[in-house]
Amino acid sequence: MKKRVDDNFLEPLKNRPGLTSLKFKQDLKKKLLREASQNRRSRKFKHLLPNLLTAALLFLSIYALQDAIRGMINNDSLSHHGNKSVPLHDSRSSNSSNEKNVDDFDFTLTEEEIKAYRSFSKNLNEQHLKGLNPLSVAKLYVQANLDQRFDVTYALYTDRQEHILWTKEENENLPDSDIENTQRIFKNIEKGEFIQTSDFEGYIKYYKDDSKSPEAMMGFSMIKNENGIWQVGFMPIQ
User: Fold this and answer.
1) Cβ proximity of 113 and 136 under 8 Å
2) CA distance 13 to 186
3) Where are the domains of the chain?
4) In this structure, which of 73, 111, 134, 164 has its CB flanked by the most CB atoms within 10 Å?
């Protein structure tokens, strides 16, 4: 329902010359109504402006809070799952004589082999290998590969000059073997049988799967050095 302007506020203008015509009254009413409507909208906007600013600030605050929470979640996720390094499968002593090193790889070291491995890994002194049979030395080589200790794997290679194929420095530039490949190649090596072929040479015969088929048969080369210590041949897999 449209509001009408009361004629009372036009009373002072009725007796003024030129302002008493009906047309003037109608025009004046329209002008006053228009100005009144504009004034109401202006007052309404003035009241609305602070509310709009408040709502905008609240929205920005909520957005900033959500962004901060997302950042905290991402950082926490990275700290738990990001920057993941290759796990080291260190041998650990236990009350039993054997121990599994990797969940999906049935590989064990005896307590004697664990002790020899730990001592040899510290200073790479071949005297820690003295008295170990060829199979035990081969198992230390496998363990070093599982632990990604390539300095240890090189130190386990034969030191007979005629059998050395590359230097320690060159070994450091060779591609690293991954753990899964090590598990695949050396599976069941601890069940292998050492076959000696000369005074200082031999190989470990084993099957990399349970079929024991000719295709699954593997040979791991071993060489005894001049001090009577069994070592691993370069490129041992035959």
Assistant:
1) yes
2) 113
3) 7-81, 100-237
4) 134
